[in-house]
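User: what does the whole thing look like in 3D?
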Amino acid sequence: MRVFLDLFIEFFQIGLFAIGGGPATIPFLMDLPNRHDWYEVPDVANMLAVSESTPGPIGINMATYAGYNAAGFLGGIAATLSLVLPSLIVIILIAKLLDNFSKNMYVKSSFGMIRPAVTGLIATAVYGIFRAALFTDASGNFRFPVVLFLVCLGYFALMSLKKLKKLHPAFWILCGAVMGIVFKL
Amino acid sequence: MKDLLALYAAFFRIGGLTFGGGLTMLPMLKYELVEKKHWVEEADLLDYYAVGQCTPGIIAVNVATFVGYKKKGIPGAIFSTLGMISPSLIIVSILALFLEQFMSNQVIAHAVAGIKVVVCALMLNTVVTMAKKTVKNVTAAIVCVISFLLAMFSPIPTVLLVVCAGVFGIVLYKMGRFKE
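Assistant: Here's the predicted 3D structure for the full assembly of 365 residues, as C-alpha cells:
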C-alpha cells in the first residue's frame, strides 16, 4: 500500500509543478530515483523512447511507464491519475472563477519567468539523459564515445533542418533502432 | 450519462490516435471537437490552449478538462480527462509488460542502444525548441541560465526553483520591469 501513497505524493507534486506540458515532467522524473527505487536514471531514456513512439500525451505515457515500473499495472493507473488530479482541480477552478485567466498580468508575469526557468531545468535533465544513455558504460563507469556523440549531433542537425522538422519523433527512433542493429551497438 | 460517455469516447479517440502531446494534438482536437461534434468554436479552443499552457500539468489533458467542464460541468471534466488518459494507460502498460522480456534479446539490445543515441538528439532538439519559444529577452535568458546552474550544482528541489521563478516574475511586474 505504501508504494501507492508514495506514487500519489510524487506524481501529484509533478502534476502541480510541471508547467509547460510533457517535457516539463522530465526534470522531476530524473529527480525521482534519488528518493525511490522504482527505476534508475538510465531507464528514463527508455521511458522517453516508449513515450515518444506511442499514442497519447508524452507526460501521461511517462507517468504510466514510471508507475508501471514501481507497482505494475495498478501503479501505472495510480501515477497517471495522481498526475492529472492537480490539472483537474486547477482547470475547474479557473473555468469557474476566472474570465480571461491567461490575460491576467499576475499570471502573465509569473509564467513569463517560470517558462525560461523550466527551459533551464530541462537543459539539466538533457545533460542527465546524455550522461545516462551515452556517457556511462555497462559497468557504470564514465566513458566518452566520440563517434556516437558525433552521430547524435548529426541526428540533432538533421532534426533541425527545416524540411525534416515535421517528421515524427517515432521516425527518428526507428532510424536509431535500425542503426543499432546494423552496427551492433 | 449519454453525453458523458460521448465526451469519454471523443477524448479516447483523440488520445489514442495522436502521437505526441501539446501542440501536435491541436489539429486532432480541432477536427474532433470543432468540425465533427460542434462542441466548441475554434476561437474558444485556442483560448483553452492558452490557459492549458500556463496552468500546471499536461497541456492536452488541461484542454480536455476545460472542454469537458464547459460541456457538462465537473462530471464532464472528469470523463473527458479519463478518456484522454485511458489509451496511454492501456498501450504503455502492455508495452512495459513485454519490454522486460524483450530486453534480454540480443537484437533488441542493439536496437535499444541505437535508440538511446536518437533519444539524446530528440531531447537536445526539445530543449532548443523550448529555448527559442521561452527565452525572449535578457531577463528570461538570465533566469534560464541561473535555473540550469542551480538545478545542476545545488541540492535545491526542482519545485522550489519553479516557485521562485514565478515569484520573481510577479516582483518584476510590481516594479514595472516586466516585459511581455
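In plain terms: Residues 2-102 of chain B form one domain. The two ends of chain B are 44 Å apart (CA to CA).
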